[in-house]
Amino acid sequence: MSELLNIIEIKGLRKKYKGAEDEALKGIDLNIPKGAFYGLLGPNSAGKTTLISILCGLLKISEGEVYLDGIDVKKESGRIKNLIGLIPQEIALYHNLSIRENLKFFGQMQGIFGKDLKKRVEECLDVVKLQSHANKLVSKCSGGIKRRANLVAGLIHKPQIIFLDEPTLGVDAQSRNLIFEYLQTLNSAGATLIYTTHYMKEAETLCSWVNIIDNGNIIVQGAPQELITNHPNCNDLGQVFISLTGRDLRD
Amino acid sequence: MKKLWAVIIKEALVLIRDIPGLLLLFLMPMLLVIVVTLTQEKALNQKDNRIDILLIDHDTSDISRTIEKGLIESKYFNVIKYSQPDEAEEQEIKNSIASGQYQIGIFLPKGASQLAVLRSQRLIQLTVDNPKSIKDSIKSKSGISGLTIFFDPAIKEAYKNSVLSSLRMLIQGAEIKIMVSNFFGVLQTEINKQFKEKMLSYTKKDIKINIPDFAWNQELNKQLKETIQGYAKEDVEVKMPEFPWEPESLVQVQEKYAHKEVSMIKPSVVQNNVPGFALFAMFFIVIPLAGSIISERNEGAYNRLRTLPVNYTTFWIGKIVVYQLVCLLQFAFMLVVGLYIIPLFNDMPALVIGNSYFSIFITAFTSALAAIGFGMLIGTLASTHGQAATFGSVMIVILAILGGSFIPVYLMSPNFKIISQISPLRWGIEAFLDLFVRNGNFTTVFPSLLKLFGFFTVSVIIASFNYVRRN
């Protein structure tokens, strides 16, 4: 195994779903350095969610090796759980609990209790400006509030590696800015962020490194500016993305 | 109008595409109507549905044969004769009923018929020798024969009464047979005697007479009067003995409830209904529990939970603990209704729960586990709340019907009795009835508890398998 400068190491990763004809991931090799703000881009059905699910230990590996901070995900998936934080695309909260109750519950599940828990819950509410909505039931909150709550619920334990699956989906510009600022703060504090989005501008602004995946293969990776420069006819990451993945609609 | 049409099309498509939900909408009511109709038909019509009656016959003579023949010919009972009647004692039949194996048992002691015949002869002789004392003699139970009929305390009062009246009618038939046979022997002698005396006083000649040995009292009386009046040319009164029979003047039916120990618990509709409906209510926990599992899965919280450093079983145990508490509260609430609220209406008796508090708690606890296991199973099998609610509620009603919440199992046909064995509600109801009306204890309810716990274990294993597979 290589040195721990890369917090995520993926070697020859393949995934085939039961009954599927094609592989969802066709031999991925990838290293993500510690402290990176890493954009995982790709059209629909490219394999992004499959890759994140494997990295989080939610899906089994068909073939290959995956290491998170040196831990073999295949053999010791239990050990990675303290390292990671998942912010899924859906609002993965209990809708009949208040925002504070949700944060408290997910904090307790991470092993945080007592004063530490209380402090962390209040910190999380502060950073995403949810103090005034903290006691509202999630089911009664607006889309933007739910998104912010969904974000901090995955970060209450200050994970080293944060997986964000379209965390700004359907939120207004104000909430989006707030989320961006918070993510940049976390990254500055040393957390590694793996960020998937369909908004290329977001990736271009936020990510230090991006990776475009299509049909289960990584087709290109590099710093956003480097990718734009390497594609002379493209002025932004969106154009690079279209030039590499094509204009055909995906399932 | 076009918009309305579009809405109708949309709703139809949404409905049609939920194939499992749609199937449930048609299949579950169909299943419900079949099960309810068949159980009710069997219970109400009694067609081909005989109740087992355990019979220990040490008498083996007129009365016992009349009873056995009558029970068989009534077509309502299936007489089960004890395999070794010579060795069987009253306690054994009592134990068989008290354990719930049979609902009714009859014990005929040795010499029952002989005693009845002797008493009959004594009573009839009194009608001639001392007619004034006959009523008192009938009332006095000295030398009376008796049989004992044991009832399962869980049996419904109305059903018990109808069985008792059938049995009493059979016994009365046997009593009348004995009485008539003895009465005519005495009657013939007495008529001969009176006739001879009267005739002698008028004709001064000893006449050989031969009164037929079978005639009806009034008719015979009339004929005798006319014959003697022909000789006497005046009105003559012939004294005829009264037929000295009243129901149970020869054989007394002793009716007993077969408790395991001496018990003061009096069976009542409250004793039977509270456990039945408590179980029924407990199993309705299935709907919110399945709903919570489906919400957790569909709303994405489950995927987040899977990334947390917490054991998978912790979530299940958490659910089990909460829903267990809810079920126990439900049960306590039902007990309160039985103990304090029902007695407020129409002088209804209060529920009596006996002294086996620990066994009652354990039975409620394991019944709740079974209900929770079933809820988990449905929660992992169903894809939507609608599916869980339809399937869950109809299944509970079916299991409750099969389990005896509405119609007692002993009134079901033999096939349904076998099918009802699969209902966890039956195991729970049986255990509660054992504790509430049969004075049972932990040992007697243990087999039912084991079944309930087994059901819970199997349900949770299948649910866990489904849960993992679905995710």
Short characterization:
The complex is a heterodimer of chains A (about 250) and B (about 475). Chain A is α/β, with parallel strands linked by helices.
Overview features:
heterodimer, A: 251 residues, alpha/beta, six-stranded mixed beta sheet, four-stranded antiparallel beta sheet, globular, B: 471 residues, abc type-2 transporter like fold, five-stranded mixed beta sheet, 5 strands, 65% helix, elongated
Q: Could you characterize the architecture of this molecule?
A:
Chain A is α/β, with parallel strands linked by helices and 251 residues long. Chain A has a domain at 91-158. Chain A is built from eight helices and ten strands. In chain A, the strands form two sheets. A six-stranded mixed beta sheet of chain A has the order 6-7-8-3-9-10, sandwiched between helices. In chain A, helix 2 packs across helix 3 and helix 2 runs parallel beside helix 4 (143-153). The model of chain A has no long low-confidence stretch (mean pLDDT 90). By secondary structure, chain B is of the alpha/beta class. Chain B has a five-stranded mixed beta sheet, sandwiched between helices. In chain B, helix 10 runs antiparallel to helix 14 (385-403) and helix 13 runs antiparallel to helix 16 (424-436). Classes of the chains: A alpha/beta (251), B alpha/beta (471). The A-B interface holds A 56-58, 78, 81-82, 84-86, 88-95, 106, 109-111, 153-154 and B 295-296, 299-301, 303-310, 471.
